[in-house]
Structures are given as C-alpha cells and as structure tokens.
Amino acid sequence: MSSGPPRCSVFIVGSFGGSTTPCSHQVVPSAIEQIRRVLAIPAQRTDTTLVPYLTPEETKALLDTPDPTTRLGIRDRAMFYLGTAGGLRVSELVGVRVSEVTFDGRYLELRIQGKGRRQRALVLWKDVADAVRAWLAIRGQRHL
Questions:
Q1: Quick one: what percent of the chain has pLDDT higher than 70?
Q2: Please, are residues 102 and 82 in contact by the beta-carbon 8 Å criterion?
Q3: What is the mean pLDDT of residues 33-52?
Q4: The domain containing residue 23 runs over which residues?
Q5: Number of structural domains in the chain
Q6: Do 30 and 60 fall into the same domain?
Q7: What 3-state class would DSSP assign to 24?
Q8: How many angstroms separate the CA atoms of 91 and 82, rounded?
Q9: What span, in angstroms and rounded, lies between the C-alpha atoms of 18 and 120?
Q10: CB-based burial of residue 95 (10 Å sphere; 0-12 exposed, 13-18 middle, 19+ buried)?
C-alpha cells in the first residue's frame, strides 16, 4: 500500500474511534477495503468536444459592428479585435493594461496574465495594432 491517502485515512479513522493506535480500531480494515475499492474504479473518459467558435463570416460581422466614428465604437472595435485575434477570455480582455501593450512597427505585442496566473505573450497583426492605437489616442485611463 502507498503512503498516500489510505494511510492518512487509517490514522483519521483510528483517532475518531478513541484508540491509542489507529490500526487497532475495528472499523479500520473495512475502511481500508472501501478505500481500495474506490481507488480501483477506473476514471471515466469523456469524448472531448470542440469549443464553439466564430466562423470567419461571424468574426467579420462582429468586427464591423462598432461605429468607428464614435468614442465607444472605437473602444469596442479595439476590444473586439484584441479578443478575437488574441483568443482572450473576457476577464483577460477587461484587465489589459497599457503597460502590457507594446507596438513593434506594424505589430502589437501583448502580455497577458491568464487563468491560473499563467503569463503569455501574443504578437498581433496590423489591423489589431491600428484599432488599439486609435483607442489609445482618445482614451485616458490605465486600462484599455
């Protein structure tokens, strides 16, 4: 038997029974057997399903929706471009800070802290960079 959960369980079961040694309590053998049976159950495999995604036509329609002549339209366009091109979660998108954005010629480099505090760097194309530049030119806050 490994030194993992079953031994820990033996100690816990024994200590609740008031025994001086965990193994001397009458419930310990049946608890160990039940633990073995549970651990012997094979994990169920499920079919992996493809995450739903936007088609190219849906993506284009989404990116063309904001009005580029209004402040909110410019902001929304930049956010839609960042979100779709970078594959960002909503929490990642709304948490993007200006300090995490670097322009390299025609491209934009974005550093993201994602789920599980994991960091990643994204290099995004010219259309995204142009949309973000347009928003940065009119906004005035720390967050994009």
A1: 79
A2: no
A3: 85
A4: 5-40
A5: 2
A6: no
A7: helix
A8: 13
A9: 53
A10: middle
Q: For residue 15, give Cα distances in angstroms to 3, 35, 56, 62, 65.
A: 18, 17, 62, 62, 65
Confidence of residue 21 (pLDDT cuts 50, 70, 90): low
Count of C-beta atoms within a 10 Å radius of residue 92:
18
Instruction: Read off the tokens for 9.
Output: 């369980």
Q: What DSSP character marks residue 12?
A: H
Q: CB of 144 within 8 A of CB of 100? A: no
Query: What confidence tier does 125 reach under pLDDT thresholds 50, 70, 90?
Result: very high
* Residue 61, token pair as written in the block: 């329609």
What gap in Å lies between CA 24 and CA 27, rounded to an integer? Answer: 9
Residues 69, 35, single domain; the answer is no
Go through 29-38 and write b for each residue having 16 or more CB atoms within 10 A of its CB, e for each that does not: eebbeebeee
pTM above 0.70, yes or no: no
Whether residue 35 is found in the same domain as residue 69: no
What's the average model confidence in pLDDT over 1-30? 60
How much is the pLDDT for 20? 60
Mean pLDDT of 1-12: 54
Identify the CA nearest to 110 among candidates 97, 137, 42: 97
